[in-house]
């Protein structure tokens, strides 16, 4: 047992202090309930940071828990043609709500650069939200209506295909004008017939043709447009479209 020590009180009196028996390492008592509780409590194993080899001989590493998951903010800039800036301003009230409320993106219209800027934030959940938003803005810039372009946000199997008349056949002057006229038809009836039969949307922008729809539907619509460019009479194209429509009804 250690020797007693002397303590000095504030009034300069010496008082002999007797050490507590618990202070001695040999006299420390342990309660039995404490021992039982410690035996029942499993010991926590250290973090498994070693490399393990599976049955195929491939090394497997445990995930690093020291790094916190972080989401990098990405941005896209979609240019808008000059002739689509006025429709963009007029339809802006219908364009930004799906991007902000549905895709949880940050969007703004840059009038100086004539572009729409999109950026993901910490609220963005879908990984492909930024790409869907860019495709939506691009579809509107090509000439599609807002209601038709919104389908790109709701469905995953929709695409846009663009080609020119000269990719099919080299036409100039009046020959090019007549080819475009055959595609559109009187009051747009031929174009509407192609859209309704193939369940697509077709935009005629000068000598460029943009088609929005599913993969198979785009193929059928493209074949009809190519036939009209090559000089097929509209009556023959109508007949082919009727046959396709009848087959689709039988299929569904």
UniProtKB/TrEMBL annotation:
SUPFAM superfamilies: Eukaryotic type KH-domain (KH-domain type I). Gene3D superfamilies: K Homology domain, type 1. It holds the Pfam family KH_PNO1_2nd. Residues 62-83 are annotated as: Disordered. Keywords: Nucleus, RNA-binding. Residues 157-230 form the K Homology domain. InterPro entries: KH-I_PNO1_first, KH_dom, KH_dom_type_1_sf, KH_PNO1_2nd. It is found in: Nucleus, Nucleolus. GO terms for cellular component: nucleolus. One of its GO terms (molecular function) is RNA binding. Required for small ribosomal subunit (SSU) synthesis. Has a role in the processing of early nucleolar and late cytoplasmic pre-RNA species. Belongs to the PNO1 family. Component of the small ribosomal subunit, ribosomal RNA processing complex (SSU RRP complex). This is Pre-rRNA-processing protein PNO1. It comes from Terfezia boudieri ATCC MYA-4762.
